[in-house]
Specification:
Strand order of the largest sheet: 2-1-3-4-9-5-6-7-8
Distance between the termini: 62 Å
Radius of gyration: 25 Å
Mean pLDDT: 74
Number of helices: 9
Order of helices and strands: HHHHHHHEEHEEEEEEHE
Number of strands: 9
Low-confidence stretches: 1-7, 14-33, 101-110, 123-131
Shape: elongated
Largest sheet: 9 strands, mixed
Length: 257
């Protein structure tokens, strides 16, 4: 049997069911169908962060099989709000995972936040770093392992500088205890490389980027800096300013509330 528009009853039934499915998705906030992009992006970002499906689900506060079911295409229409939680764990947005263009309201909201890249600083070793030890501002010498967001107004009020100058790195080792602890993440202004006033800076030691307290040695010529640790088990030492290879000043500690 063919209707007046040229469609069979079966085709009409299938089309109506498809429309119903998409309407239901809009009402309940689900993602209809399972795109290869979503699976690819989740896998890529989990690998970069050294996470597995179970851990990612748990960090997102979801059932431990949530991500696994997506990757195995068992989850037909995962909810937007659940995917958004996964995206936050992976340091990205829902749009980054799905490729969907945000609605106008979402685009406006996105303008109220800034994004800051987290770098894997030890990945810089052996990656062709320039002789001046400038690493953090050289995109070819570092690996971006995540992206963190913060309200624009809060960032501007707290720091008064462009977010484009900021990078996030994790504290490695115990040389800065008890001021900074291993695993903490710090925000670094990569354009502030002058240790006056003194403070905690990221310096290149020839093998990796390390956090140290740096201050100018008074009346030194050529100009020298004293490099020290908060942990008294580590000895301080002096270098000329050029030899210190300063990559940026620590301006704050990044913490998820």
């Amino acid at each position: 049997m063919v209707d007046m528009g040229g469609e069979t009853k079966r085709e009409i039934s299938l089309r109506q069911r498809e429309c119903s499915r998409f309407a239901d998705a809009m009402v309940h906030g689900t993602v209809p169908g399972m795109s290869d992009r979503l699976i690819r992006e989740i896998q890529r970002r989990m690998k970069a962060l050294n996470l597995d499906a179970k851990t990612t689900s748990q960090k997102a506060g979801l059932n431990e099989s949530f991500v696994r079911d997506i990757l195995r295409k068992k989850s037909i229409a995962p909810r937007h709000d659940s995917l958004a939680k996964v995206a936050r764990v992976l340091g990205c947005t829902l749009a980054d995972l799905t490729g969907e263009r945000p609605a106008t309201r979402e685009i406006k909201a996105a303008g109220d936040t800034i994004e800051i890249a987290e770098l894997e600083v030890h990945a810089a070793a052996g990656m062709g770093v320039d002789g001046d030890g400038t690493v953090m501002a050289n995109e070819e010498a570092v690996a971006v392992i995540g992206v963190h967001t913060m309200p624009t107004a809060s960032f501007r009020e707290a720091y008064g500088i462009s977010s484009g100058r900021i990078r996030i790195i994790a504290v490695k080792g115990n040389s800065m205890e008890p001021r900074l602890w291993p695993g903490q993440r710090v925000m670094v202004d990569i354009e502030d490389k002058t240790p006056s006033p003194p403070g905690v800076f990221v310096i290149w030691d020839g093998l990796a980027l390390v956090l140290k307290y740096v201050e100018v040695v008074a009346n030194s010529d050529p100009l020298k800096v004293r490099i020290s640790s908060a942990n008294k088990d580590f000895m301080s030492y002096e270098r000329t300013l050029d030899e210190a290879h300063i990559n940026g000043r620590v301006v704050g500690v990044w913490a998820r509330m």
